[in-house]
Design goal:
The N terminus is likely disordered. It contains 15 helices and no strands. By secondary structure, the chain is mainly alpha-helical. Helix 8 runs antiparallel to helix 12 and helix 10 crosses helix 11.
Length: about 280
């Protein structure tokens, strides 16, 4: 499932890369975070020269603070995760991982609320239709999956889960692939509901930008960035809770199926990633 397009995808991919990607991917993304984020913002607003200068200057401060303050926390989380994997995962470990991810994500997005609000106040009326069109264009890229039948969507998602599992565990036996596939296919199909939810979030963002000179823009932006699930439709929130719970069950299934060699493979990747994060935080 993808998050809201404006900043969210880039911020999560780039600045939470240490808890998502590995090795070179993390270093490459993080060391080019300023360019990647600026490019994404430009794609939504068609920045003029002064706006681009503003974004660049503010990003430098945000990214420097994130490197010094947040990356050491990522390193700690990765070491803790390796210890938990080594002894075998429990439901408490899955809950811990979800809590830590949400905490790091909230910290990340919270860092952008004040400067983001200052940027929004610089947006001119000409850029609002451009923003609307950009949001719709990016969301429409998901419509192809909506046109697939339910089983086709689930099959494609299962293939992605298997690919990610192989990346972390190494080669899977036929029996492991069968068990993981069965569990993955049983995950709820939330794409249609997510699409509706995303349309509403896009509407909220446009409304926030249109009212940029009124009210508490920093507070509203922080709410939109940090509490994106809490402000969702109750039915979608309930579905999302169920989905996250089933993801936890899938992780426990994968952990139970892992061989000692595969477990060592995961731990080695986590240790290597922690070393990468340590190096980035001291650059």
């Amino acid at each position: 499932m993808k998050t809201s397009r404006i900043l969210i995808f880039v911020l999560t991919s780039v600045l939470l890369a240490p808890v998502i990607f590995t090795g070179c991917a993390t270093s490459l993304l993080y060391n080019h975070a300023d360019w990647l984020i600026t490019r994404q913002i430009d794609g939504y607003f068609d920045l003029n020269r002064s706006q681009r200068s503003f974004v660049t200057s503010r990003l430098n401060g945000i990214l420097d603070g994130h490197r010094r303050e947040a990356l050491p926390q990522y390193e700690t989380v990765l070491h803790e995760a390796a210890m938990r994997v080594q002894r075998g995962l429990t439901e408490a470990d899955v809950d811990w991982a979800a809590t830590e991810y949400d905490r790091l994500r909230a910290d990340l997005f919270g860092r952008f609320s004040t400067d983001g609000a200052d940027f929004i106040r610089l947006v001119n009326d000409r850029q609002i239709p451009y923003l609307k069109q950009s949001l719709q264009t990016r969301l429409s890229k998901e419509e192809g999956l909506l046109h697939d039948d339910r089983r086709t969507r689930l099959t494609k998602r299962t293939e992605r889960i298997l690919s990610l599992t192989r990346e972390w565990l190494g080669n899977l036996s036929p029996a492991q692939e069968q068990d993981i596939s069965r569990a993955a296919m049983n995950l709820p199909d939330i794409l249609p509901s997510w699409y509706t939810h995303q349309m509403e979030r896009n509407r909220q963002l446009v409304e926030l930008v249109e009212a940029r000179q009124q009210g508490d823009t920093p507070g509203r932006l922080k709410e939109w960035l940090v509490n994106q699930d809490k402000t969702a439709d109750p039915e979608f929130r309930d579905m999302l809770r169920q989905f996250k719970g089933r993801i936890g069950e899938l992780l426990l299934t994968i952990d139970r199926l892992a061989t000692p060699e595969q477990r060592r493979h995961v731990i080695a990747k986590l240790d290597d990633l922690a070393k990468t994060v340590h190096g980035l935080s001291h650059t």
